[in-house]
Amino acid sequence: MIRVLLVDDQPLMRSGFRALLELEPDIEVVAEAGNGERGLALARELRPDVALIDIRMPLVDGIAATRRIAADPELDRVRVVVLTNYGFDEYVLDALRAGATGFLVKDVEPEDLVHAVRVAARGDALLAPSITRRLIARYVAQPPAPDPGALAELTGREREAVVLVAQGLSNDAVAERMAISPMTAKTHVNRAMAKLHARDRAQLVIAAYESGLVSPRRGP
């Protein structure tokens, strides 16, 4: 059973998400909160698998809440999906760096919401296509200075795995492309995450771009 915490200051939005999610036999909404401070308290109390957190809230906003969850070792299994009213805004990169597994636009289709919760519960990166396109466009317009030092500890095979993850491939697809077993692919990805201090695959993708390993201008 996937246990979900809803954190949003709009009661109607929370009610709608709860109604949709509780139609699924493998998903349970364990609690709701109307602000980030209460959401943090409930996350620590209930340890949900997934927290759907609004990016703009009173008291504690979605970015600060995500950062605190990611920094708390007792909440290392909680995956945060940040909710936004916009296809992209200036806080997307900040939230991903803070530890969000991904983003959802609030007008998401019901089946996409359910899929997102399941993907996040697995620890996989989740970005709506519109957000992915704008995220890459941001890097094209303002590419970060490469940081070779961030990659120094990666082996050649780990670098190869990171590039494939940044292309959106699953571990099974990475294994197929690298002609290795899925378990070996998972090991390469997990070791790369540890070396780059990435909490999950979303942060690994950000690290790939910010280190210069992947460039949207010229491809990997």
Automatic annotation (TrEMBL):
Under the heading InterPro entries, the entry gives: CheY-like_superfamily, NreC/VraR/RcsB-like_REC, Sig_transdc_resp-reg_C-effctor, Sig_transdc_resp-reg_receiver, Tscrpt_reg_LuxR_C, WalR-like
- Domain named HTH luxR-type is located at 147-212
Which residue ranges does the record assign to the Response regulatory domain? 3-121
Would the keyword DNA-binding turn up in this protein's UniProt record?
Answer: yes
4-aspartylphosphate-modified residues are: D54
Which keywords describe this protein according to UniProt? DNA-binding, Phosphoprotein, Transcription, Transcription regulation
Classification via CDD domains: LuxR_C_like (cd06170), REC_NarL-like (cd17535)
Q: Name one GO molecular function term.
A: DNA binding
Does the UniProt entry include the keyword Ribosomal protein? no
One GO biological-process annotation of the entry reads: regulation of DNA-templated transcription
What name appears for this protein in its UniProt entry?
A: DNA-binding response regulator
Q: Which organism is it from?
A: Glycomyces terrestris
Give the source lineage, highest ranks first. Answer: Bacteria, Bacillati, Actinomycetota, Actinomycetes, Glycomycetales
